[in-house]
UniProtKB/TrEMBL annotation:
Keywords recorded for this protein, A-Z: Cell membrane, GTP-binding, GTPase activation, Lipoprotein, Membrane, Myristate, Nucleotide-binding, Palmitate
Compositionally biased intervals (Basic residues): 1-11
Record PROSITE patterns: C_CAP_COFACTOR_C (PS51329), NDPK_LIKE (PS51374)
UniProt domain C-CAP/cofactor C-like: residue ranges: 35-189
Record SMART domains: CARP
Record's protein name: Protein XRP2
Biological source species: Hirundo rustica rustica
Amino acid sequence: MGCFFSRRRKPAQGGQLPQQAGAGQDAATGEQKAPQYSWDLRAKVDPKEYTFSGLKNETVGRLPGKVAGQQFVIQDCENCKIYIFDHSATITIDDCVNCQIFLGPIKGSVFFRDCKDCKCVVACQQFRTRDCKKLEVFLCCATQPIIESSTGMKFGCFQYYYPELALQFKDAGLSIFNNTWSNIHDFTPVSGENNWGLLPETAVVQDYVPLPSSEELKAVRISTDATKSIIPITRGRRQKNSDESCLAVFFAGDYTTANARKLIDEMTSKGFQLVQTKEVLMKAEDAHRVFQQSASEFIPLLEKGPVVALEFNGDGAVEQCQSTINEVFSGTKVFVSESKASASQDVDNFYNFADMQMGM
């Protein structure tokens, strides 16, 4: 027979047991009060505050700060406009029809089940659908999105802004540079059919998920202007316009995000296209594989934190990227492709490494 041991509470400093809050006699009745422990004092979560269920023809939402990392459930809604302007742990959306949905950054997974004719804007770590029809999604997803037993699915790149959104991405542990929105894995492909595709490049978010009209939600200062989007707009898997790409890599520091954004603005304003972005930690051996002969120059910078890589595409991308970096970032160490010939290898080396790192 095994032995059973009861766990003893360790005395706190000074040999005293932890205090029980509120134990003792009730002054009015003289009766002994039940002891109250610190875990009893935590705020109780009311599931109803984190659920939208059985709604029809309504506009509902949660303002920034109102979800604060909790789980959320949306179910059995029809013809509704639903806005979650906050970060959450996970969100499930079940049996919703003809709804327009905005979901702020989700630390874990978002799971759509048995939904149809919905238009959505979603940012998450993991995206999954099952038994869905005709969902149109502007997506930011850190890992490969998965669809299962779903048809008529269309995807575009997340583009949205409101002042609290950048901090919500941070609170959800999501990088604005890790977005695999177009790299869809169909778990249940059908021979000769395509269950998913990409939204038109000209698609405008507001035409799919309009800005909220209710007084309460209008307080959120939203912009769907692509140039203001918290997430950089990338081409993803769309056909490239040119056979010339260029890789630029920024190293961790106080201004990494700002510098990467500045380069994106400079290059896109000159007509070059941002294909993909990635934020990832690198080790010395990774640097040798990616940066090759110039690796030793960059290895000391890797200890400070993750790198941010950008791929630009367009005729003359390498020359323009080099000249912009020399003019605008003269005091900053940046890796940039040396020539058109080496650039495609740079891009392949970096993103093959990054995909392995992220388990793609």
